[in-house]
Write a structure and sequence with these properties.
FlgN-like; two-stranded antiparallel sheet; mainly alpha
Length: 135
Amino acid sequence: MNNLIDTIKKIENILYSLERILKQECHNLLKSKTSNEEILELIKRKKILFKKLIILSQDRLCLEKEYNIFPPYESNNKLNNYWKKIINTCLILRKLNLKNKIIMNKKFYLNQRFLELSSSYKKSVTYNLDGNLEI
């Protein structure tokens, strides 16, 4: 049972780390001068944490089968409390992710509008897959 508790604690820690990264990403997106490298570094860190989270989730599922106990772990108060924290953190992550998505979409829209207005009205200016301008 201690293995399951340790695994759930690790999942909780990873989720808190993801929360900090998403808040930092939001802050960077709101700044007017943020380099792409800063955003890409945050994305790399998120990918690493998601890989760890997937592995821990698989371990958790195996341990649940072994101990024959499943979420929300009502028979075990300690596990139940950790699980509630995980659920709350996941809800916060969902809100932060949606907020970041909205900010990125607005920035992209404003950049696209500026590029269209700054060039002649007959030329279409867009970004290609490499992030370079195409006219």
